[in-house]
């Protein structure tokens, strides 16, 4: 008890947000490390190397069959979601727009480099020469990996320093690569849109870190933990970018042809259904039937999360609508009831409500995927379609659909365990008083980390008063 009390007192000492030395040091050292590691390990794959000409002739291919032409449109969409969608979605706080977009940019830029290495060691390592061979699909997967860390950022938005966010990303990418390998390769679960691998892991990773970094006096920053008209409009821009491009996100790495086509359709329908039930529940539980912008910005996206695992399965169009219908209700009710409950009784301060947008819908998506896989039949899929959809080949050739359903459920459990366990471990590290995080009365504020912020903010306030 004495040691625990001493550690708690050490962590709760006076905060110093000066990161003049620590932030440049971490950025320069880690970027230098990336350059060295890329020089040692990363090379182009056969479709992005100059030897593609020879490879194409040997395999009787044409340039249009290069994977770039199949994957790059989806990569563009996913890339916009990562840098614009996630960034602007988090600009709802009245005085934390710089941090929302700027730190999102920082996390993504560092994370995608580390992800190419971590995922490459597990999935793209050429054992003949010890090099990681990358192409456009690796870039998409790296963006997916970063998405898990950006989800976690949502739980601690406004309460951590940029140095802490880089540490969160370093460990988050590492944990993601390991759990992804276990779920997709060892367990052989299918998760095209990442309901389990991305959203469930990222959600519980962020929530566990937030629990470890609990601030009992955060109410001192209550005046800043709210939105204003223009900040909600900017956040809605992020929502619309995510909503429009989510079909690309869920279908980006599925098999060419029917699987990719089906994933886009299922996601498109689930998202549409979610909007109506979100609006309905938001209006029902608000005084005078008015809508809450928090629900419209976030819960309208929950259907895209929940349909991710089963996106390429024969979920059927009406099944996608049902998933979206249910998630709109559950996610909105989560914002109304669960978020305040978790803060009051579980000591989890979830700034963006990632439990309602990512964690819960991710778990629902994993359950939907397990049920849909277990219920798959040859009469619906066809013998060849069943093998192709679930990759029943090689050592998995004799696996039945009912057994596949069980493995899907096991994959969901792995994602939760890695998210919770990893988040607690990383949260313990981030509690150390060396990272330059803000004091309880100065959270949700750009001023500690951004130059000229007060002048810009005051000038905007003066202009608005004059109008």
UniProtKB/TrEMBL annotation:
Listed InterPro entries: Ammonium/urea_transptr, NH4_transpt_AmtB-like_dom, RhesusRHD
Any one GO BP annotation for this protein: ammonium homeostasis
Taxonomic superkingdom: Eukaryota
SUPFAM superfamilies xref list: Ammonium transporter (SSF111352)
Gene Ontology molecular function: ammonium channel activity
Entry keywords, A to Z: Ammonia transport, Cell membrane, Glycoprotein, Membrane, Transmembrane, Transmembrane helix, Transport
Places the protein is found: Cell membrane
Domain Ammonium transporter AmtB-like: 60-432
Gene3D superfamilies, per the entry: Ammonium transporter AmtB like domains
Signal peptide: none
Topology versus the membrane: Multi-pass membrane protein
Cited Pfam families: Ammonium_transp
Family: Belongs to the ammonium transporter (TC 2.A.49) family. Rh subfamily.
The protein's role, per its UniProt record: Functions as an ammonia transporter. May play a role in the elimination of ammonia in the gill.
Family annotation (PANTHER family): AMMONIUM TRANSPORTER, AMMONIUM TRANSPORTER RH TYPE C-LIKE 2
The protein's name: Ammonium transporter AmtB-like domain-containing protein
Species of origin: Gouania willdenowi
């Amino acid at each position: 008890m004495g040691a625990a009390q001493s550690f708690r007192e050490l962590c709760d000492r006076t905060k110093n947000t000066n990161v003049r030395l620590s932030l440049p040091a971490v950025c320069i050292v880690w970027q230098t490390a990336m350059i060295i590691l890329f020089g040692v390990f990363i090379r182009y794959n056969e479709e992005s190397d100059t030897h593609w000409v020879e490879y194409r002739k040997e395999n009787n291919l044409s340039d249009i069959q290069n994977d770039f032409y199949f994957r790059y449109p989806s990569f563009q969409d996913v890339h916009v979601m990562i840098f614009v969608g996630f960034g602007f979605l988090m600009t709802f706080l009245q005085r934390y727009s710089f941090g929302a977009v700027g730190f999102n940019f920082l996390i993504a830029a560092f994370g995608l480099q580390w992800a190419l290495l971590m995922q490459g060691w597990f999935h793209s390592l050429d054992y003949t020469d010890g090099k990681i061979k990358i192409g456009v699909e690796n870039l998409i997967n790296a963006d997916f990996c970063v998405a898990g860390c950006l989800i976690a950022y949502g739980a601690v938005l406004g309460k951590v320093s940029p140095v802490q966010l880089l540490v969160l990303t370093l460990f988050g990418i590492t944990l993601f690569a390991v759990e992804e390998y276990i779920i997709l390769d060892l367990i052989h679960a299918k998760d095209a849109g990442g309901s389990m691998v991305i959203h469930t892991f990222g959600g519980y990773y962020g929530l566990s870190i937030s629990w470890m970094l609990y601030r009992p006096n955060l109410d001192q920053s209550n005046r800043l933990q709210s939105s204003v008209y223009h900040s909600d409009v900017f956040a809605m821009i992020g929502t619309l970018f995510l909503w429009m491009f989510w079909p690309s996100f869920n279908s980006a790495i599925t098999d060419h042809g029917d699987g990719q086509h089906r994933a886009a359709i299922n996601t498109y329908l689930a998202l549409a259904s979610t909007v109506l039930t979100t609006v309905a529940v938001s209006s029902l539980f608000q005084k005078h039937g008015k809508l809450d912008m928090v629900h419209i910005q976030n819960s309208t996206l929950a259907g895209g999360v929940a349909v991710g695992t089963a996106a390429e399965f024969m979920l059927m169009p009406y099944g996608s609508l049902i998933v979206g219908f249910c998630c709109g209700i559950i996610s909105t009710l989560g914002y109304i009831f669960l978020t305040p409950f978790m803060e009051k009784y579980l000591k989890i301060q979830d700034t963006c409500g990632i439990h309602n947008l990512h964690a819960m819908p991710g778990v629902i998506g994993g359950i939907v995927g397990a049920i849909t896989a277990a219920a798959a039949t040859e009469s619906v899929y066809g013998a060849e379609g069943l093998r192709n959809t679930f990759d029943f080949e090689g050592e998995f050739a004799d696996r039945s659909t009912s057994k596949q359903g069980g493995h899907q459920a096991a994959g969901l459990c792995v994602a939760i365990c890695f998210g919770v366990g990893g988040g607690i471990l990383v949260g313990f590290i981030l509690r150390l008083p060396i990272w330059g995080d803000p004091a309880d009365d100065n959270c949700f504020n750009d001023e500690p980390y951004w130059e000229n912020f007060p002048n810009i903010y005051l000038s905007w306030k003066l202009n608005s008063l004059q109008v």
